[in-house]
Amino acid sequence: MEPYVIGLLGMVLMLAMIFLHVPIGVAMGLAGVLTFGLIRGSFGPALTLFGTETVGKVASMELAVVPLFLLMGAFATVGGLSSDLYRIAYALVGHMRGGLALATIGGCAGFGAVCGSSIATATTMTRVAMPEMNKRNYSERLSTGSIAAGGTLGMLIPPSIILVLYGVLTEQFVKTLFVAALIPGLMAVALYVLTIWLLVRRNPELGPPGEELPWAEVGRALANGWAAIVLMITVTGGIYAGIFSVNESAAVGAVMAFAIALLRGRLTLKTFWLALRDTAATTSMIYLMIIGASIFTYAVTLSGLPEIIVNGIRDTGLPGIWVVVLLMLMYIVLGSIFDTISSMVITIPFVFPLIVGYGFDPIWWGILTVMVIEIGMVTPPVGMNVFVMKAMLPKTTLRTIYAGVMPFLAADLVRLALVIAFPALTLVLVDFFALPR
C-alpha cells in the first residue's frame, strides 16, 4: 500500500475516533502511531513517538507560557479584575446610549488581554455585565450579543493562548504573532463599537442611556481599578517594549495576579485550590492535544499526503486567494462545531503546508486562522460562546442570543475581508519593529 494511502486512512481513522467521542489528543496520537507503524512496517519505532514527543513538549519553553497565562487568568478572575475593568468602562461611557454594551466590549477587551481565553472572558462578563444591563432595561438581544461577541476578543488580543499554540505547532515566533495581532484586535473593538452605535442610533430603546457620573466617580473607578490596569500594561506592554520575553511576561503576570487577589482578601485556600485545579485541568487537555497533534503531523508528513494535497490543489490552477476563501469557510464551520484549539490542531498538518506552498506569509495566516475560528465561536448552529452563555442564562433562548450576535458577526466578516485584502494590517508592525518571521 502506498504511503499516502496509509496517511489518508490514518486521517479517516482519526476523524472516526473523534466522532465517537474519543478525546482529540488521544485520537490524533493513536492514528499517528498506527500510520507511522504501517508506513515503516514496524510498530517499535512508532511506539517510541509517545515517549519522545511527550518529553519534547513537556520540556518545551515555548509551551511553558500556556500554564502561566492560564494561571494568571484564574487568579485575575479570583481577584475580581474583570469587574474593575467593566466599572472603568462604564464610568467613561455608561451615560451614552448603548453605553453598557460599549462598556462590555471594553471590559472584554481588557480582560481578554489579561486571561487570553475567549470562553473565560464570555463566562466572566456574563456574570458581571448581564445583571447590570437587565437592571437598566437593555434589549436582551443587544446584551447577549455584545457579551458573546466581546468574549471572542480574548482569543485575539495578546496574550493569546491559541496564538502561542499556533506558534509552537508551526515553528513561528510567538512575540511576532502577538505584535501582528495588535491591529486586527483593535479593529475588532472599533468595529464592535461602531456596530453598537449603529444599532442604538436606529433603535434608541435597545440601550437606554445611564446617568452621567461626576468626574469624581470616574476618578474613583479608575483608582479602584488601578491593579487591573497595571497588570494589563505590565504583561502586554512588557512584551511589546522588549522588557520581558513572552515567558517572563507570563510568569510576572501570574505572580502579580496572585498578589492582587491575595492583597484584596479574595484568595482563600478554597479559591487558591480551585484556581490551581482549573489551570491544571486545562493545561493537561492542551498538552494532550499538542502531543497528539505532533505525533499525527510527524506521521502524515512521512506519508507525503500534505505534499500531494498541495500539488493537487495547485495543479487545478485555482488562484491562491480563492484557496484562502475556501479555507476560511471551512474554519467557520469547524469553529462552530469544535472548540478553538481542536479546530486548529486537527487542520494544521494539511492546511499549513498548503498556505506556505502558495507563498502566503505564515504570520498573516496565523492571525487569519485565529480570527476565523473566533467567528466560528458565535456562528450557528453551535458556537461555543453562545452555548456557554445559554448554560448561564437558562431563561434566555438560543434564538435570542443568535439574533443578538448577527450584527457583530457581520462586523467580523468585514474585518476578515479587510485583513485578507490588506495583509499589511497584520504585518506593518512586524516589519516596523524588524521582528523575526
* Uncertain regions spanning at least 5 consecutive residues: none
First-residue to last-residue Cα separation:
39 Å
For this structure, the quaternary state is single chain
User: Measured on Cα atoms, how large is the radius of gyration?
Assistant: 22 Å
Average the pLDDT over all residues and give the rounded result: 88
- β content, as a range? under 5%
**Structural class of the secondary elements?**
mainly alpha
The proportion of residues forming helix, as a percent range, comes to over 70%
The total beta strand count reads 0
Shape: globular
Number of helices: 22
Helix-strand string? HHHHHHHHHHHHHHHHHHHHHH
Largest sheet: none
Concise summary:
With 437 residues, the protein is an all-alpha fold. The chain is built from 22 helices and no strands.
Structural account:
The protein is mainly α. The protein is globular. Helices cover 80% and strands 0% of the residues.
From the structure above, extract its key features.
single chain, 0% strand, globular
Topology (elements, then pairings):
Elements: H1 3-19, H2 24-40, H3 43-58, H4 65-78, H5 81-93, H6 99-115, H7 118-135, H8 140-151, H9 153-156, H10 161-170, H11 174-202, H12 215-224, H13 226-240, H14 246-263, H15 269-303, H16 305-315, H17 320-337, H18 340-357, H19 362-376, H20 384-392, H21 398-421, H22 424-432
Helix pairs in contact: 1-2, 1-15, 2-3, 2-15, 3-15, 4-14, 4-15, 5-6, 5-12, 5-13, 6-7, 6-8, 6-11, 6-13, 7-8, 7-20, 8-21, 10-18, 10-19, 11-19, 11-21, 11-22, 13-14, 15-18, 16-18, 17-18, 17-19, 18-19, 19-21
